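2.7 Reproducibility. Because tokenized structures are sensitive to small changes in the input, we list the exact sequence used for SDR family oxidoreductase, including any N-terminal residues retained from the expression construct. No trimming or masking was applied before prediction.
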Amino acid sequence: MAGTILITGAGSGFGKEVALRLAADGHDVIAGVEIIAQVSAVRAEARERGVELRVEKLDVTDPGDRERALDWDVEVLLNNAGVSEGGSTVDIPAERLRRQFEVNVIGPILLTQPLARRMARRRSGRIVFMSSVAGLTVDPFTGAYAASKHAVEAFADALDQELAEFGVTVATINPGPFLTGFNDTMFETWKEWRDDPAERLFDYSALAFPHEQYDPEPVHAATVRVLLGEDRRYRHLLPGEMEPQVREQLAAEWDRELNDGRRPALVRKAYDIAPATPVRES
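Resulting structure tokens (single pass, no recycling of outputs):
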């Protein structure tokens, strides 16, 4: 058994499904959810699936919630909590930009610090970050989200090097475009901005997430394997078929030139694609 596994952001999406699957297999799982209403909702879903799952309110940006988590004797941590703010870098309001980093970077790191120290003293433990392909590459209108995930990648890499001698391992999960609703709602956050729409550079009602999206099953399965220590790789780019494309994209950055003044292909696609477009099965 892997010991007590804490999963943040388990009120929905990847985190919730992974928590339920691990609990179904008899593991000691704590599903941390952002708001109190999600506690009863996730507990109800666990009952429906016939599994024992401990659900706790854990808003990673709340110092009180983070302090309570210190009493849970966590041996495996999945930093899964996250939000996504869409929009051009020149348009995103300051408070939305700060919120992006508080939830995706600052909160998770402040939660990780004391838990990692305990793991190091115990000389065992596992820390996994739910990063993104956006932690390695960047699309138009996702600059804030990608910047937060690039920061996550930096912290994860540093931790991996710093904790090695203490018997603690670190890994990242890097999902590409998966059809969970997360990517599409990123392109709707502009509806909550408190700004002057006339000052915006773009009309966000005309834009959508510029990628076809995959079924999320590979992320669920891979995350379970990583948390249980069955997969020893550091980085897990999903789906695997995207890896050659991402490697090529990263290598091309070394020869990149200034833009030529024309609208890039992905910006055009953001105008042309419909929300929640699935990847076509070949």
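Residues 141 and 182 are 14 Å apart (CA to CA).
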